[in-house]
Each structure stands twice: as structure tokens, then as C-alpha cells.
Amino acid sequence: AWVDQGYTGERAAQAAERHGITLEVVKLPEAKRGFVLLPRRWVVERSFAWATKFRRLVKDYERYAQTLAGLHVVAFACLMIRQVAALTADS
User: Superkingdom of this entry's organism (predicted)?
Assistant: First the structure.
């Protein structure tokens, strides 16, 4: 998983190891000042933006966390199906 420099500590490393996740810290370029777009950061931000297109996920209407997690799975499955359909239509 790509993470910011906030996850460089031992606690984050232990938690990731416990769950079988390999952390890759995205570092800032040394010589740059001001706003710098981090590589791979946009992947997560884009995914959050896609999720907000599903009205049910914008607000937390669900009583149980499992229901909300299931709705996220359905939403991202729909997104993947759309992308696959677009790819197959082009070829």
C-alpha cells in the first residue's frame, strides 16, 4: 500500500505486518518548496471521488458498518464493470 510520510513509524509498520500489507512510503522531493503533487497520491483521491458519485455512499445512512462496507464493494464493482465494458467496446 502506498502511504504518506505520516506512516513511517514502527506502529504503522507493525499494524501493516499483522495484516500482511507491505507499506511503500511516498517521499517528497527534497529540493522542492511549496505544493508538490505526490506520485500515487492521486489514485486514492480519485477513488474517493468515484465513490461520491453513488448517492447512498455520500452520507452514512446505514445502521451497521457491514452494510456500508458491502455497499462500497457493490459501488466499486459497478465502477470496474463500467471500465471493463468501455475497454471491450474499444477493441
Answer: Bacteria
